[in-house]
């Protein structure tokens, strides 16, 4: 299995919007997203910095509940 890419928060938000996630609010640098089926996630948005692979893996597995293969197809 290949490594997850390091991507910026705005790129991840674009990917999540493709599968139905909507931005519901923002507190400081943290953007809260929700899907119509109830799944939620929080993405830290620090301009000029990429998301850590560990955090991205956690968001994919625990929050949005899709496989890494599905994520690669979306990105």
Question: How is this structure best described in words?
Answer:
This protein is α+β, with helices and mostly antiparallel strands and 75 residues long. The protein has one domain (9-74): Hypothetical protein (Metal Transport, Frataxin, Chain A), CATH 3.30.920.30. 37% of the residues lie in helices and 21% in strands. The chain is built from 3 helices and 3 strands. The chain has helices spanning 9-18, 53-63, 68-74, and strands spanning 22-27, 30-34, 40-44. A 3-stranded antiparallel beta sheet has the order 1-2-3, covered by helices on one side.
Topology:
Elements: H1 9-18, E1 22-27, E2 30-34, E3 40-44, H2 53-63, H3 68-74
Antiparallel strand pairs: 1-2, 2-3
- The CATH topology assignment is Metal Transport, Frataxin, Chain A
Give the radius of gyration.
12 Å
Helix content estimate: 25-40%
Mean pLDDT: 94
Number of DSSP helices? 3
Strands of the widest sheet, in order across it, are: 1-2-3
Overall tally of domains: 1
Please identify the top-level CATH class.
Answer: Alpha Beta
Give the structural class. Answer: alpha+beta
Give the N-terminus to C-terminus distance in angstroms.
Answer: 16 Å
Largest sheet descriptor: 3 strands, antiparallel
Beta-strand share of residues: 15-25%
CATH level 4 superfamily: Hypothetical protein
CATH architecture: 2-Layer Sandwich
Net shape: globular
**SSE order, as H and E?**
HEEEHH
Low-confidence stretches: none
* Strand tally: 3
């Amino acid at each position: 299995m290949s490594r997850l890419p390091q991507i910026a928060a705005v790129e991840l938000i674009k990917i999540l919007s493709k599968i139905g996630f909507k931005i519901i609010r923002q507190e400081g640098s943290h953007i809260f997203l929700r899907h119509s089926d109830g799944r939620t996630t929080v993405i830290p948005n620090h301009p000029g910095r990429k998301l850590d692979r560990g955090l991205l893996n956690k968001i994919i597995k625990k929050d949005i509940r899709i496989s890494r293969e599905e994520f690669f197809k979306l990105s």
